[in-house]
User: Which sequence fits this backbone?
């Protein structure tokens, strides 16, 4: 009986595994992509699809996000995967939010990547969806884009197979790796190297390495509206004050502590449940709305309607869409590093690499990170 033998086996066909498969195949490596489900159903299809460089701190992580954004553009052009290069608006309705945006993007910031502080009038020229009442101004950024995660994560494996010669073995659980042998639910595969991109599954492969890592899980609640009327478009992805307290890119701002104090006193429920609100649009014109953040190794299986109501309530304070009738509610879980790091990379055995822990930025960082990881391996 002949068995598959390749240069590199990748376990997990979420965005992290897909990105590594692409980077390795582009270097001429023979790659097999092994995925437990018939179609990946993890964090990568459950997200907003936001490629969000502005959330990454200036320096190598921001550069990695911009590189990922370039690769998404190339991939979209080749595959037809929906990518809307809409940019983003961070909206300010309070003096402390406006001051923080000025601190973040003011003239002392050096290379600001085309960002601009906009008056209320200029903001409303960029977006007809923004609620004008009480608007102090906004930060425009051209680097953000939206992909459709459900389409992308379904389309990318077939494209990797057809265009880059990647072998797909879906419906295949990997339960042990002793290179060159990889034991799967449908028999062994042989590979010189393996990269484990198992997302929130810390228990199946090298569980001791995961247990020793500063990793936990984060559960997020999400909503999607019915399709908006034909011809309507969101334009830039939108967010507001609560988001300024969430992303690491704003951590250096002196105004952040006071903003957090006000948010804690005005929105204690939102803060307690990690609610900040982003708005993106799918290829069909529905709005994706979220989210909340609950940390812990065993996420609560049940979703809470009061959290969804808090998300929608905050959304209404800054966005006015034709309809907020909800068509779908779901939650996703991603691995999160507890030490502030941006990724967890480990080698639990010779030839085996774990890539994990990208937190809420897997769509934003994976393509760039994969080029770096594959570059180091080969
Ligand atoms: C609700 C939500 C919103 C988000 N929004 C954004 C966003 O807008 N922008 C952004 O940049 N990031 C966002 N993120 C984060 C992003 O989705 C994650 O960082 C990313 O999807 C993680 O990808 P992954 O490949 O590690 O995991 P996953 O997508 O979970 O994939 C892991 C895969 O590995 C497979 N697997 C595991 N173990 C095995 C095994 N032993 N054998 C075979 N297969 C195995 C699983 O079946 C799964 O398909 C969001 C996340 C969530 C949950």
Assistant:
């Amino acid at each position: 009986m002949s068995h598959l033998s390749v240069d590199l086996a990748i376990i997990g066909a979420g965005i992290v595994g897909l990105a590594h498969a692409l980077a390795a195949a582009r270097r001429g490596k023979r790659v097999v992509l092994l995925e437990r489900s018939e179609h990946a159903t993890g964090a990568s299809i459950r997200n907003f699809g936001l490629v969000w460089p502005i959330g990454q701190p200036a320096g190598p992580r921001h550069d990695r996000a911009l590189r990922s954004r370039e690769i998404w553009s190339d991939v979209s052009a080749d595959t037809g995967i929906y990518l809307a290069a809409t940019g983003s608006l961070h909206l300010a309705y309070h003096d402390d939010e406006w001051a923080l945006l000025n601190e973040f993007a003011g003239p002392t910031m050096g290379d600001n990547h085309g960002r601009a502080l906009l008056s209320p009038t200029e903001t409303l020229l960029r977006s007809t969806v923004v609620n004008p009442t009480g608007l102090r101004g906004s930060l425009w950024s051209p680097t953000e884009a939206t992909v459709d995660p459900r389409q992308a994560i379904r389309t990318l494996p077939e494209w990797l197979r057809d265009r880059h010669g990647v072998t797909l073995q879906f419906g295949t659980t990997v339960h042990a790796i002793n290179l060159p042998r990889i034991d799967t639910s449908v028999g062994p595969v042989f590979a010189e190297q393996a990269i484990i991109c198992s997302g929130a599954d810390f228990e199946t492969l090298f569980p001791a390495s995961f247990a020793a890592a500063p990793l936990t899980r984060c559960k997020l609640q999400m909503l999607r509206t019915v399709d908006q009327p034909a011809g309507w478009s969101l334009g830039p992805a939108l967010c507001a004050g609560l988001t300024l307290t969430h992303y690491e890119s704003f951590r250096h701002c002196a105004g952040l502590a006071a903003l957090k104090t006000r948010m804690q006193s005005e929105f204690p429920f939102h803060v307690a449940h990690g609610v900040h609100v982003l708005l993106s649009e799918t290829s069909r014109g529905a709005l994706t709305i979220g989210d909340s953040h609950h940390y812990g190794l065993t996420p609560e299986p049940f979703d809470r309607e009061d959290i969804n109501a808090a998300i929608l309530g905050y959304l209404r304070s800054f966005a006015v869409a034709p309809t907020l009738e909800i068509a779908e509610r779901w939650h996703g879980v991603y691995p999160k590093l507890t030490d502030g790091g941006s990724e967890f990379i480990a080698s639990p055995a010779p030839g085996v690499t774990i890539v994990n822990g990208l937190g809420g930025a897997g769509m934003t960082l994976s393509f760039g990170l994969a080029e770096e990881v594959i570059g180091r391996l080969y």
